[in-house]
Amino acid sequence: MKKQLITVLALAGIAAGATLAFAAEGSHGGGILKSKHDMNMYVGSHGGKLDKDQRVCAYCHTPHHSVGIGATAMVDIDKDGAADLDGLGNETFYEVYYPLWSRALNPTATIDGYVSQTFNPTGKFYDPLAGPSRLCMTCHDGTIAADSYYGETNGSANAGDDQLVMWSMGNFGIGKGDSLSNDHPVGFVYKDMADDDTKYEIKDQSSTFIGTQKTIDSALTDVAGVGKVMTCASCHDVHNGNAVQNKPLAAGESGRGYFLLAAQKDSAICLSCHDK
């Protein structure tokens, strides 16, 4: 009996160890705890302070006294100057998304977005900070310390450092210098791009992410008065939920965890929207 008990405990220990190793390895749909967005796994080893109560959600959310109630943002869709309200109907106001947010956030901030020969939304709604993307930048702009949040405003976990190395992710100061001009565009109405011109080769938003039943439409953010907008959350599930598809490909492969809603193998995440 004693021998069986020891065997059971040993197996339990191996299973627990495997679970922890899996969780620490990447973000593969196992929930936010011990994922790359669990700041308790990060700030202590990067010059910051752990949350006093070892909370996970507190780094981004607070149940009381959240910031930014009722704030609005303005987008100048004809690009004639963000402060130029010309009375021609070319400016759009929309409500800023604040889900009980605990981090400093500027509702009037602007950021440069990607524009190229194949993507130029001038004359249409285009704000890279629309929806949850503005929230992402409160960490990913590379200037605000990860451990600066409600009640703990003097964080020091690599504040100002855009070379934040976290489980071998490398650079995640994505919006450094108030610019997303060299990143995949977000903040546009998906239908505008899908319907506007066949040169974009964009699938209809009723299509599903490859290998899943999740529709593109369900991953877009409905911005009141604007439409269904593509945001950072259209590709990434920040809470590492069951929709995350970037599982390890095989034994010994990491399937690098970026909270993606389709796999990286065979570029499924790209080909879910792009009809190539």
Automatic annotation (TrEMBL):
InterPro entries the UniProt entry points to: Multihaem_cyt_sf
Source organism, top-level taxon: Bacteria
Name of the molecule in the record: Cytochrome C family protein
First and last residue of the signal peptide: 1-23
Alphabetically ordered keywords of this record: Signal
